[in-house]
């Protein structure tokens, strides 16, 4: 049941991080030009909004905000909007994006020291020379502010960075039955030499309209 995929976030006894990624059969999340509306179908978007409603905070990277201009609010289901966190080391995201201007839920703008946050957002600074430790440091900073259940919504670079830092508990990979051919890859993890080094997480899968959801437990392997 799809409900089972929500229970870890709904009833986690500690800090819990879930990432969701929607991609094509050939592992693309967008075309080469960045067009991604929509790779997955409406049931998958409803599932994403359920995750948002259960999360205290939702994290997205600068590229996602630039390309998609998301609201990161709960619209397809009932529930509270999460705090929005924009990971933007170079402070490159235009200040006109929805997350900074819509008077919606709180937005944290995560920028390198010496950079200014966008007007309308709260600034959270970090040392740009320590990018490898940023995922853990960011999650700790959110937990200190009472934000313990975290959804990482994109894009692929941001999710990959958190997986490489061993900071994600579960990955919801939604695969749509289409072939994009070339474009932006879903994940770009650190290189490995042999398949013996590949991650083999425990996995359950469920139909989701025409898509299929793979619920990967990154804390358990098979």
Summed up, what is this model?
The protein has 222 residues and is an alpha/beta fold.
Task: Explain what this protein looks like in three dimensions.
With 222 residues, this protein is an alpha/beta fold. The protein has one domain: Dihydrofolate Reductase, subunit A (3-Layer(aba) Sandwich). Helices cover 23% and strands 30% of the residues. The chain is built from 6 helices and 11 strands. It has a 9-stranded mixed beta sheet, sandwiched between helices. α3 (62-68) links the parallel β3 and β4 (83-87). The longest helix has 13 residues, at 42-54. It is globular and about 40 Å long. The protein starts with a helix and ends with a strand.
CATH architecture: 3-Layer(aba) Sandwich
Give me the side-by-side strand order of the main sheet: 6-5-4-3-7-1-8-11-10
Strand count: 11
| Radius of gyration using CA atoms only | 17 Å
Question: The CATH topology is what?
Answer: Dihydrofolate Reductase, subunit A
Q: List the uncertain runs.
A: none
Strand content: 25-35%
The CATH superfamily bears the name Dihydrofolate Reductase, subunit A
Please describe the topology of this protein.
Elements: H1 3-10, E1 16-24, E2 28-30, H2 42-54, E3 57-61, H3 62-68, E4 83-87, H4 98-101, E5 107-112, E6 122-126, H5 134-144, E7 149-154, H6 156-164, E8 170-176, E9 184-185, E10 201-208, E11 211-221
Parallel strand pairs: 1-7, 1-8, 3-4, 3-7, 4-5, 5-6
Antiparallel strand pairs: 2-9, 8-11, 10-11
Key attributes of the depicted protein:
222 residues; alpha/beta; Dihydrofolate Reductase, subunit A; two-stranded antiparallel ribbon; globular
């Amino acid at each position: 049941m799809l409900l089972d995929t929500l229970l870890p976030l709904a009833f986690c006894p500690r800090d819990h991080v879930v990432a969701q990624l929607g991609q094509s059969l050939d592992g693309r999340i967008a075309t080469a030009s960045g067009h991604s509306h929509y790779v997955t179908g409406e049931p998958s978007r409803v599932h994403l909004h359920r995750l948002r409603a259960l999360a205290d905070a939702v994290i997205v990277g600068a590229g996602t905000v630039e390309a998609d201009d998301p609201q990161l609010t709960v619209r397809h289901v009932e529930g509270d909007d999460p705090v929005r966190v924009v990971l933007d080391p170079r402070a490159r995201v235009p200040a006109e994006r929805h997350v900074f201007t819509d008077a919606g839920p709180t937005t944290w703008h995560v920028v390198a020291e010496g950079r200014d946050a966008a007007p309308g957002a709260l600034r959270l600074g970090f040392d740009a020379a320590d990018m490898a430790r940023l995922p853990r440091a960011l999650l700790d900073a959110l937990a200190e502010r009472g934000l313990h259940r975290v959804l990482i919504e994109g894009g692929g670079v941001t999710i990959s960075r958190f997986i490489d830092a061993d900071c994600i508990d579960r990955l919801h990979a939604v695969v749509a039955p289409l072939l994009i051919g070339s474009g932006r890859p879903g994940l770009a993890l650190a290189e490995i030499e042999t398949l013996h080094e590949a991650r083999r997480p425990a996995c359950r899968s469920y139909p989701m309209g025409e898509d299929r959801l793979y619920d990967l437990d990154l804390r358990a392997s098979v």
